[in-house]
Amino acid sequence: MTDRRDFIKAAGIVAGAAMMPRFSFASVKGSDRIKVGLIGCGARGTAAATNMIQADQNIEIVALADLFEDKPALAEKRISDFCAANFPKEKGDIIKEGKVKKFFGWDCADQLLKEDVDVVIEATPPVFRTPHYAKIVEAGKHAFLEKPACVDAVQARKMLELSKKADEKGLSVVCGTQRRYHEAYQEIIKRIHDGAIGKITSARAYWNQASHTQHEPRKDAWSDMEWQLRNWIYFTWLSGDIIVEQHLHNLDVINWAMQAHPIKAYGMGGQAARFGKEFGHIYDHFCVEYEYPGGVRMTSMCRQTDNCSDQIGEAVVGTEGTSNCMNTITAKTPFRFSGKFRNPYEQEHVDLIESIRAGQPLNEAQQIAESNLGAIMGRESAYSGKIIDWDSAMESKMDLSPAKYEFGPLPVPPVAIPGTYKFE
To answer: Are residues 330 and 215 in the same domain?
Structure first.
């Protein structure tokens, strides 16, 4: 079997490494202990930190930051407990009791970036990811960004700019599209690129599952802003809606297989099962037809509804066979992946850390921005009822950010109604 790194290169994860400086601004040589800062101390951020520890115990958690005051201390305890249970001998070096800096408030990212950190895990609600990454690049730090990396067209364009700046500074950035680090996916996609199913003629992608259970009932003391932040998945300005926040995984796989991004999106969606103010204003289902270069069509579905037939995955159809992208090719020469593989949630951190130590940056910022913008195109087509093309999305002035980031009143926009909602 081809070496894992060959798969990674084939997937486009290594971006011009040979042209990069040997060591980046946040250089770590050899086996030096890597200093890690975490921005966003919720469940996913804490899990990403433990994934990184699982990947490499020669790191140190030096700083934790979150908007809410109670979150950094909770994250520190969870990480400490994880180390005690899994790496008791290394625990004292990974997370030093009483030494971890903790920051909170609207400027918590700025405070953390003043610390001596080599790599930053960014796992806040998605709307903050692009502006925080801009600060991370400016500070010359490597990064792990959870997905999605952006929620609107303005942020997507900014991420494309930041990708170039990260290249200039020799910085690694790995994103949370962990399918790209799953060896079965890597093997299958490589074979597709090598012609195992001929020329791709169509594709499909699904993330149909039960409804989210994440929900915090509103407390009297919470302002509109705080309530929305604590239930961020239900608000488009914070999450991008389910097609961006969740279905992005599948859309990214199709881009990977196609070696291209979509050029048009024609979608529909709405609320069919999830109503009430507690669920904000996002849709609970989307269906989008994407067009890729060469006239290839891809059917995309995502849904969060209880008691339905669930399906999560991707597939491509070629002139000489088909593939589910994950582990199987059905063709004249069939193939099924049967090898062992490391948890991709850990493998993405393995590759990030190895790239930092070797001074050979991985830069996924452009890749995630293009997949994100495709998801945004699908959302905006469904919201508006109009066909959205790539150029229109790239030129869009859409900016979902609130006028002010402060606790206080923040009206919830109405549910988007096709034919009335305007894409700008």
So the answer is: yes
Alpha carbons 333 and 132: distance in angstroms, whole number: 47
Predicted local confidence at residue 168, as pLDDT: 98
Which residue stretches of the chain have pLDDT < 50?
Answer: 1-26
Element (H, E) at 302: strand 296-304
Count of positions (residues) in the chain: 424
Q: Which two tokens stand for residue 306?
A: 């209880």
Give the burial class of 281: count Cβ atoms within 10 A of its Cβ; 0-12 exposed, 13-18 middle, 19 or more buried. middle
| DSSP H/E element including 50 | helix 43-55
**The whole model's pTM is what?**
0.92
For residue 417, is it within any domain?
no
Based on the domain organization, do 153 and 287 belong to the same domain?
A: no
- Show the tokens assigned to 98: 């009483």
Tens of pLDDT, residue by residue over 120-132, are 999 999 999 999 9
Q: Are 35 and 162 contained in the same domain?
A: yes
Q: What are the structure tokens assigned to 16, written together?
A: 């011009």
Residue 30: what pLDDT? 56
List Cβ neighbours of 146 (8 Å cut-off, separation of 6 or more). 40, 44, 45, 48, 121, 122, 123, 126, 129, 175, 176
Q: How high is the pLDDT of residue 32?
A: 87
Is residue 381 domain-shared with residue 362, that is, in the same domain?
Answer: no
Please give the structure tokens belonging to residue 375.
């998801």
Cα distances (angstroms) measured from residue 216 to each of 8, 40, 222, 278, 365: 39, 17, 11, 9, 32
- The structural domain count of the chain equals 2
The range of the structural domain enclosing residue 200 comes to: 186-338+373-395
